[in-house]
Amino acid sequence: MRFDKIDLSILRELQQDSSLTNQELADRVGLSASPCLRRVKALEESGVIDRKVTLLKRSSLGLKLTAFLQISMDRHTPDRFSVFEEQVDLFSEVKNCNLVTGQNCDYLLEVVVEDMEKYHDFLLGKLTRIPGVTGVQSSFLLRSVKESTALPLNHII
After folding, report:
1. Positive or negative torsion for Cα 79, 80, 83, 88
2. Residue 103 has what pLDDT?
3. In a domain? residue 92
């Protein structure tokens, strides 16, 4: 898909606040409502806009512990990875799960829980029970320096 400056403006605005009404968005990007809506629909239909979500504040929900886990697997086979990924997908505590290379691990997970006791329960009661998990190294978030859900768009155009 080819993008012009207005498409990029729409994407930037929606990445900051997807709850904007079509009229508010149109005003911000310098269009009238109908063309703006057509462009948003085209971006959705092309798959550029994947979905719209509401971001919740962790601390307001009592989720005070964030852990980053490096997971090592015993075998690098499609069936072993498939079982791991299916299981992890069921765990609401896992915010992100990524298969990686170049590390001394196979997966990087971001896990969000209430406290260390809940983390312990998650680790021993769920994660290490998945067949093939041979190692877990945990790092804990002290402070977020930057959090963003926005993707960079500067490379377009």
Report:
1. negative
2. 77
3. yes
